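Lab notebook, design round three. We kept the backbone fixed and only want residue identities now. Task for the bench partner: fill in a sequence for the structure below.
Input structure tokens:
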């Protein structure tokens, strides 16, 4: 359903597609999605909603997608990300939120994703990454955070410490307040 200029999807549109495992709604004109839109497709493993005009995601919209492993929300107009948006995504391994307008990530925003391996947040407006946005567990998490105006201060001490243990930064990011230094070598006064 790519390039169809879809601007709205009615609840029940996927009623007879309960075995659907891949849904590409990318490159359309969706400005919003209904909270119950994915109720009829519980076997989805991959969902693409990239290149739309989404400004918000309803809380619990994905809760009926327990098998979802990849979710792409790139190139939308999202500015706020809340933990309630991602309830029920226990098998999610990759979340892509590149090229949005995200300025902040609430503490715990990705805690309900015990299998997350890749968080893609490139080209947003993030100025900090607060501790507690993820549960490190016993796995590596790859953060893609290039091209964000991140201020390197004590708020990213956890990221510096995690970099040594479980966090991998894919690509390269520059601190707006230390543009000539490598972020993981900075003395931020971390204890």
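Proposed sequence:
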């Amino acid at each position: 359903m790519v390039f169809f200029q879809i601007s709205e999807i009615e609840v029940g549109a996927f009623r007879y597609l309960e075995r659907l495992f891949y849904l590409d709604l990318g490159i359309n004109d969706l400005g919003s999605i209904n909270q119950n839109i994915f109720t009829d497709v519980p076997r989805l493993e991959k969902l693409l909603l990239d290149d739309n005009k989404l400004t918000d995601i309803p809380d619990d919209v994905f809760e009926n997608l327990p098998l979802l492993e990849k979710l792409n929300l790139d190139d939308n107009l999202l500015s706020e990300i809340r933990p309630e948006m991602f309830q029920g995504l226990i098998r999610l391994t990759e979340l892509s939120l590149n090229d949005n307008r995200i300025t902040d990530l609430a503490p715990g925003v990705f805690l309900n994703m015990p299998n997350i391996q890749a968080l893609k947040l490139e080209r947003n407006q993030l100025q900090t990454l607060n501790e507690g946005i993820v549960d490190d567990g016993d796995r590596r998490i790859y953060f893609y955070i290039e091209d964000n105006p991140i201020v390197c201060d004590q708020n990213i001490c956890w990221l510096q410490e995690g970099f040594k243990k479980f966090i991998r930064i894919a690509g390269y990011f520059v601190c707006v307040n230390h543009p000539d230094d490598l972020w993981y070598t900075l003395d931020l006064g971390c204890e």
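Keep this in mind before ordering anything: The helical segments are 157-165.
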